[in-house]
UniProtKB/TrEMBL annotation, chains A, B:
Catalyzes the attachment of proline to tRNA(Pro) in a two-step reaction: proline is first activated by ATP to form Pro-AMP and then transferred to the acceptor end of tRNA(Pro). As ProRS can inadvertently accommodate and process non-cognate amino acids such as alanine and cysteine, to avoid such errors it has two additional distinct editing activities against alanine. One activity is designated as 'pretransfer' editing and involves the tRNA(Pro)-independent hydrolysis of activated Ala-AMP. Its main location: cytoplasm. GO terms for cellular component: cytosol. Consists of three domains: the N-terminal catalytic domain, the editing domain and the C-terminal anticodon-binding domain. It comes from Oryzisolibacter propanilivorax. This is Proline--tRNA ligase. Residues 38-477 form the Aminoacyl-transfer RNA synthetases class-II family profile domain. InterPro entries: aa-tRNA-synt_IIb, aa-tRNA-synth_II, aa-tRNA-synth_II/BPL/LPL, Anticodon-bd, Anticodon-bd_dom_sf, Pro-tRNA-ligase_IIa, Pro-tRNA-synth_IIa_bac-type, Pro-tRNA-Synthase_IIa_type1. It catalyses: tRNA(Pro) + L-proline + ATP = L-prolyl-tRNA(Pro) + AMP + diphosphate. Homodimer. Belongs to the class-II aminoacyl-tRNA synthetase family. ProS type 1 subfamily. One of its GO terms (biological process) is prolyl-tRNA aminoacylation.
Length: 581, 581
């Protein structure tokens, strides 16, 4: 490809709304162009990256036995009403009425459509397993679209859906996809982790996120450097506390803590570690009568160590809280604790509440908590002496770096990641909602066991850039670079020698199957180099008249700090070797 | 590819709403699946066809120097308000409001977005010409979607837009596209015609439709078998009448024609050819006063030969009718003619009307027209004697088969076609509306000269089927078949010989780059053959134990009436030769 036949457009300045480096660089390098909030044109340079991502995804999906189709972007509401998602999904679901006033949506995913296809097409267990996928435009009307392609409204997703006759089959389909995803992410040439994720109501461990590692990532990834353990923060289990609870050593003491309404302030005031304090979180659930009508409120007190954070997903699995909960209101808190938030604790309650202690809190002795009196805490609190042993103990907290790994093989570390893929065992959630059955071996109808598997095709380039860039611009891995090699001839318009050599090398590389671009725009060397460093083409060859006279050209990888002189006669094999490396 | 790893799904019966053969066959062959009115999932078998169409289009667009990008499906209304299309386009334009109540549309085409890109990106004449294209989902909320992919609401279109500095450049860009389209349609392997089309307000001949020939086509295509002349019916010019007008031979006679309100009935009653009658079409235009307010109605009488049909596009170019017209109302007709429709004519008017005669009518003598009296016509009417020579004479009619070709090189023929491509010179229509300029060589801003170029990617397979099918199913051209070759082993599950031979041939064909499918489903031969004849794979090889024992396999092209025995040892080269043919 010659630059004159392509479209190269770079900007010195990033737009004011570009907060993250990938958004800034994708805009400056001319990969994308904003049309509206969260809506971008994929410009020629960016589309090349997206097409390479798609090609890798497609090859590996096909290799894994999935079959490609394309489901409509605009979908009738009826199917979404069958699963209840038409009502349940918030304004994120873009709703339309057609000329006849009928309801439609723009697909954010396609579980409903693919399940509808399955219930019509997959009539017998003999047709199973089957996995349909598409690489297709999606839309989610994000409340606050930002970060360019990282959190856009319109985007391209690869979504796959597997159909199996039983859970064992579904697990095999799931594992095949998880393996395909590893191959896909390996091929992208990015540092990533596959981390266990919460699988919601389905339970089990059949949910993994594929996170591209980047310091700027929105997600916290928990992993053990000494083992294979990796999970996202929602899912990562806090290992059971190591030792037994120490014996009480202090007397229970009402201690004035004027104006100190946080554990950190109290610890500082009293000169004790934050980990000797206990924080009180007050939740509420609705109590229903036998007729299922609201008949009152149950208040809950969650106790966590002062230096720990609550993990909502874990809390939502505590029996009694698993049907939904909310934070208690101030009047509800005052009614039960006789005090305002900031000084709450499990002692001297005005009305009984259900107490759930985090596992770490259950093994603490001589701890400090609010006194249920303004400006007062109690120190030297001990289970079994000052209050009954906790009846409910659970893992309620986010893990922290240095926690023991749940597999017992080291300590946990935490890094940041960008979620770009997700594999998920769905069970019969959609097949039951939509009455999607097949005839089993015994001739009886059974619900499909399903899985769903997504890759954010347009998000991936953004994640790749967050991971791979420097002050000059993007640094693409070979596999998804818009061009693998760029040829920069200096003074091509003035020198027949340079022109001939550049065009010959261009032809030779094309013939060798290399995705090469010849920059024949006639830019000055400085501007030309800056463009390609910004765009991030990994391999660059510079041809100049002076160099060619000495029989030399210059090669530089985008990560190299200096160019390497290579004999002009050897450059073809030199580049091919670099690409094979 | 093995069938067991793919998805083959055929139906005995077509859905009740499938009116045309392509819709019936695409549904029965499992190429598409209806989700809603005019909205289809492209099933795996159909998607393969679409991908092949896309690949051919993409290769030839790139070869012609166009650059691919992808514009958003969901587009902000603002740009569409700049050109006025947001208001002007009817309910065909699918409108959406997002969560913030802002207006969006689902793209039916992308002139606005690409012009917006150009006015930002193409700042200098040095960057021109430039041609951006996309292959992308479109939506048009058709009032009556039907015929499957032929007139769907959601569809895939390749749309390209060229930007040039002046009309000469735009014409060169247009010609490059017109040539690329010929290469594309040649490669599809379909019978087609590129026909001149009306270019609306722009004028000139820079608009061509690419019509796939099919007896079931909606469009009438006019062509001259003895020359290159081809145009669509709207555009095709009726050559000027051959000879001078004969001298009057009959006297003007009021003739009773009770109940005969059509030319055909009158001709039959009087025993004369239909071509000796003249039909009266009454139109109306609004007359505006100096302030531009409606100040009355001008009534027009169009005279066409009884056997000719009015051509609305031609009528809309008659001076005075070119700002818009409508058919006159019955009260307006009675006010000017003193008679009801059915017996109208240019003689004995109650109030003056503007008369426009078709060129053929202007050379008629002794003609018959309505008498402006119920149940009466006048025979023997002659220009210059019974009424003044016509002041306005124009080509107002559709051509008919047998008309002289406008290039004077033979007679016109008419066949049916399906419009699948369109190239169009746009001029500055969009660049002026959106203030899209670049700096010309003299440093002054100038409006882009634009062209637009569409191919209906998902319509093409339907058109291909309308042209190529028989009672057993589809017959694909090699270039766009879902698979080029199908291997049908008989009793593969029982015979190791058949299995080994089939798998070897499958591997050999794959290695030769042939898009081959091995049907390993274990279907009975009858059902297997019926499936592939329905799906329309052009080349079939049948392997049976009996044949293999004799060292033979059977080859049959989808159009062949019988199979050819081929030595098993030669089948690979035999098939390769067939594909090269």
């Amino acid at each position: 490809m010659k630059a004159s036949q392509f479209f190269v457009s770079t900007l010195k300045e990033a737009p004011a709304d570009a907060e993250v480096v990938s958004h800034r660089l994708m805009t400056r390098a001319g990969l994308i162009k904003k049309l509206g909030a969260g809506i971008y044109t994929y410009m020629p340079m960016g589309l090349r990256v997206i097409r390479k991502v798609e090609a890798i995804v497609r090859e590996e999906m096909n290799r894994a036995g999935a079959v490609e189709c394309t489901m409509p972007v605009v979908q009738p509401a009826e199917l979404w009403q069958e699963t209840g998602r038409f009502e349940k999904m918030g304004p994120e679901l873009l709703r339309i009425q057609d000329r006849h006033g009928r309801d439609f949506i723009v697909q954010p995913t396609s579980e409903e459509v693919v399940t509808d296809i399955a219930r019509q097409e997959l009539r017998s267990y003999k047709q199973l397993p089957k996995n349909f996928y598409q690489i297709q435009t999606k839309f989610r009307d994000e409340r606050r679209p930002r970060f360019g392609l990282m959190r856009g409204r319109e985007f391209i997703m690869k979504d796959a859906y597997s159909f199996d006759r039983d859970p064992a089959g579904a697990q095999a389909s799931y594992q095949a996809m998880a393996q395909a995803y590893r191959r896909i992410f390996d091929r992208f040439g990015l540092k990533y982790r596959a981390v266990a994720a919460d699988s919601g109501a389905i339970g089990g461990d059949l949910s993994e996120e594929f996170q591209v590692i980047a310091a700027t990532g929105e997600d916290a990834i928990v992993y053990c450097p000494d083992s294979d353990y990796a999970a996202n923060m929602e899912k990562a289990e806090a290992a059971a506390p190591a030792g037994p609870r120490p014996a009480p050593a202090q007397a229970r003491t009402l201690t004035p803590t004027p104006g100190k309404a946080t554990c950190a302030d109290v610890a500082a005031l009293l000169g004790v570690p934050l980990s000797s304090t206990v924080k009180s979180l007050v939740l509420a659930t609705d109590v229903l009568n036998d007729a299922g009508e609201p008949a009152g409120v149950q208040v809950w007190l969650l106790l966590l160590r002062g230096d720990h954070d609550m993990n909502e997903i874990k809390v939502s699995k505590v029996p009694g809280l698993d049907a939904g909960f909310r934070f208690a209101t101030v009047p509800e808190i005052e009614e039960h604790f006789g005090a305002k938030p900031g000084y709450l604790g499990p002692l001297d309650l005005k009305k009984p509440v259900k107490i759930v202690a985090d596992r770490e809190v259950a093994v603490m002795a001589d701890w400090i908590c609010g006194a249920n009196q303004v400006d007062h805490h109690i120190t030297g609190v001990n289970w079994g002496r000052d209050l009954p042993e906790p009846r409910a103990v659970a893992d309620l907290r986010n893990v922290v770096a240095g926690d023991r790994s749940p597999d017992g093989r080291g300590e946990l570390a935490i890094e940041r990641g960008i979620e770009v893929g997700h594999v998920f065992y769905l069970g019969t959630k959609y097949s039951k909602a939509m009455g999607a059955t097949f005839l089993n071996e015994d001739g009886k109808p059974a619900f499909f066991e399903m899985g769903c598997y997504g890759i954010g095709v347009t998000r991936l380039p953004a994640a790749a850039i967050e991971q791979n860039h420097d002050e000059r611009g993007i640094i693409w891995p070979d596999a998804i670079a818009p061009f693998t090699v760029v040829l920069c001839p200096i003074g091509m318009d003035r020198s027949e020698t340079v022109k001939a050599a550049a065009e010959q090398l261009h032809m030779d590389l094309l013939a060798a199957g290399v995705d090469v671009l010849l920059d024949d725009r006639g830019e000055r060397p400085g501007a030309m180099f800056a463009d390609w460093e910004l765009i991030g083409v990994p391999h660059r060859v510079v041809l100049s008249e002076r160099g060619l006279k000495e029989g030399q050209v210059e090669y530089q990888h985008r990560r190299d700090t200096a160019a390497t002189k290579v004999a002009a006669a050897d450059i073809l094999s030199f580049v091919k070797e670099k690409l094979a490396a």
